[in-house]
Design goal:
- Helix 6 packs antiparallel against helix 7.
- The chain has 313 residues and is mainly α.
- It has one domain.
- The chain is 83% helix and 0% strand.
- Belongs to the EamA transporter family.
- Its main location: membrane.
- This is EamA family transporter RarD.
- Keywords: Cell membrane, Membrane, Transmembrane, Transmembrane helix, Transport.
């Protein structure tokens, strides 16, 4: 039981750390706003793969990685799950970079507020996860908050929906594949790095031009994209393997809140009374979800659910 509690604690801390780093990521992508989003994405993929290889080498896990990679290629279903995870995270990365560099930071915030709802639904549909009464209420509160934002925008927020769906599906596939954090991310970036290299060589006339070596600051920032990408993904993978997809989904409220603060206070994007209402509902949902399984909330569940819990115990 103690080991289980420790695993849960590590999972929650890893997930929270990942979402904090993702929450401040717009600050980083704004620094490379002069580079086309497609090229930033390509560099992000390539340098993430390089960074992962360095980590494996430092930890002396190259040989074990090769063995695991060989084993995965002999399991078509697992390989397919990883391939689709690579695809969805690539879509997510591009949508995020494009949105930040086209002044839609609040749209990214909305996307990552919607994502927990997607994660909860995917967990219920595909992983047979169950919600308690108060978790269900918190889910409904969050849904009302998000729908209020969506409908008051007056148009379908495509960027937000793409971010939410792509990352929700990525989380589901990571849960299904059950790969270690190091192995999973290395294989994902390995699968998409060739496409990134081909793209850069197509749009740029030389390697030096593709790497932006003429601008040392831009070159350094693009190089660092591997680190700022890999570290939170490693934390996320570690957390996803230890806690439920539903909990992972609700931890993500950390990231969009930080994005919202940046969009409003740093980049002067509009924040209206509609946003206040919706975000209040969402935060209320988060607090309720966090305490939903405590003894206090169990005691104030509807009587028929209390009787059910007594029978199960």
């Amino acid at each position: 039981m103690k080991n289980l509690d420790n695993e849960q604690t590590i999972g929650i801390l890893s997930g929270a750390g990942a979402y904090f780093l993702w929450g401040v990521l717009p600050l980083y992508w704004k620094l490379v706003g002069s580079v086309p989003s497609e090229e930033v994405l390509a560099h992000r993929i390539i340098w993430s793969f390089v960074f992962m290889l360095i980590i494996l080498a430092v930890l002396r896990k190259i040989s074990s990685f090769k063995g695991e990679l060989y084993a995965i290629f002999r399991q078509p279903k697992k390989l397919m799950a990883i391939a689709f995870a690579s695809l969805f995270i690539t879509i997510n990365w591009f949508a995020f970079i494009w949105a930040v560099n086209h002044d839609h930071v609040i749209q990214t915030s909305l996307g990552y507020y919607i994502n927990p709802l997607i994660s909860v639904l995917l967990g219920i549909l595909f992983l047979k996860e169950r919600l308690s009464f108060w978790q269900l209420i918190s889910f409904l509160l969050a849904t009302i908050g998000v729908l209020n934002l969506v409908f008051r925008f007056g148009e379908i927020p495509w960027v937000s929906l793409i971010l939410a769906m792509s990352f929700g599906l990525y989380g589901l596939l990571k849960k299904k594949a059950r790969l270690g954090a190091l192995t999973g991310l290395t294989i994902e970036t390995l699968l998409i790095t060739p496409f990134a290299l081909i793209y850069l060589m197509t749009v740029r006339s030389s390697v030096a031009d593709a790497l932006y070596v003429q601008d040392s600051v831009i070159f350094s920032l693009l190089l660092g994209a591997g680190i700022v990408t890999a570290v939170p993904l490693l934390l996320f993978a570690s957390g996803a393997n230890r806690i439920s997809l539903s909990m992972i989904g609700f931890l993500q409220y950390i990231a969009p809140t930080l994005m919202l603060v940046q969009g409003v206070f740093l980049y002067d994007e509009s924040f209206t009374s509609v946003h206040v209402v919706s975000f209040t509902l969402i935060w209320a949902a988060l607090i309720l979800f966090s305490f939903a399984r405590t003894k206090l909330f169990r005691r104030i569940e509807p009587p028929f659910l209390q009787r059910k819990h007594s029978l199960e115990s």
